[in-house]
Amino acid sequence: MDILLIGGLWLDTSAWDDVVPELEALGHRAVPVALPGQGDGSTTATLADQVAAVLAAVDSSAGKPLVVGHSAACTLAWLAADARPEKIAGVVLIGGFPWDDGKLYADLFEMTDGVMPFPGWGPFEGPDSADLSDEVKAALAAKAVPVPEGVARGVVHLTDERRFDVPVVVVCPEFTPEQARQWIDAGDVPELARAKNVELVDLDSGHWPMFTRPTALATLLANATP
Prior knowledge:
Keywords: Hydrolase. This is Alpha/beta fold hydrolase. One of its GO terms (molecular function) is hydrolase activity. It comes from Promicromonospora alba. This protein has a single domain, classed as 3-Layer(aba) Sandwich (Rossmann fold), CATH 3.40.50. Strands 2-1-3-4-7-8 form a six-stranded parallel beta sheet. A two-stranded antiparallel ribbon has the order 5-6. 31% of the residues lie in helices and 15% in strands. The chain is an alpha/beta fold.
C-alpha cells in the first residue's frame, strides 16, 4: 500500500528518511509529500498550495493510500479525508489533532518577514523533546524551514461530512491514549468526536518519533493499513 507521509511545521521530506526504509521493508511504498514552502525555497506558499500537493499525491497513488500527518499536518491529512473521502484508506495522526472548519492552520508563533521561523526548543521543553539528544536538537534546528505566513495563517475549510466515515488512527507519543480520549470526549477535538472509527495507539516517545523511534513508528503505520 502507498503510505503518504506529511511532515509538520518546519520539516521537509528528509524528516522521514529513517522511516521510509522501515516501511519498505514491511512491504509498503512510502511517499514523503513535498509541501510548498517547506523545503522548496518558497516564502509565498499558502495553505491551499499545501493541500493541493497532498491531494496530488493522493490522486497519483496506486489504489487507496494511507495518509499520515504529523503534528500540525494532522490537519492536512484530515483535509485530504474531506476532499477525497472515497479515495483514501484512512488517516493516521501523529502527535496532533485536526482543526475544525474556520480555524487558522498554525498561527502559533511570531512572524518575521512573512514567515514563521522555528522558535527554538524553549516552547517544547518537557515531554515533547525529552527523548531528543542535544545533537539531534541542534541538527533539527539547523535544518528547520521557516513556514510561510500564507501557510500558517491559512484558514481551514471542511465541506464533506463523508470525512467522518474515514478510519482514523491517532498515534499518541508525548501524550497517552487516555489523555487523547479525554480531550475528544470533552469536545476539545470536535472533528474526531464526530468521526465514526477512531483508534488511539500509544508510542513511547516525544513529539518527533520519526527521529527517535523510526522502527516503532513504521510498525504502527504498517499496522494501521487495512
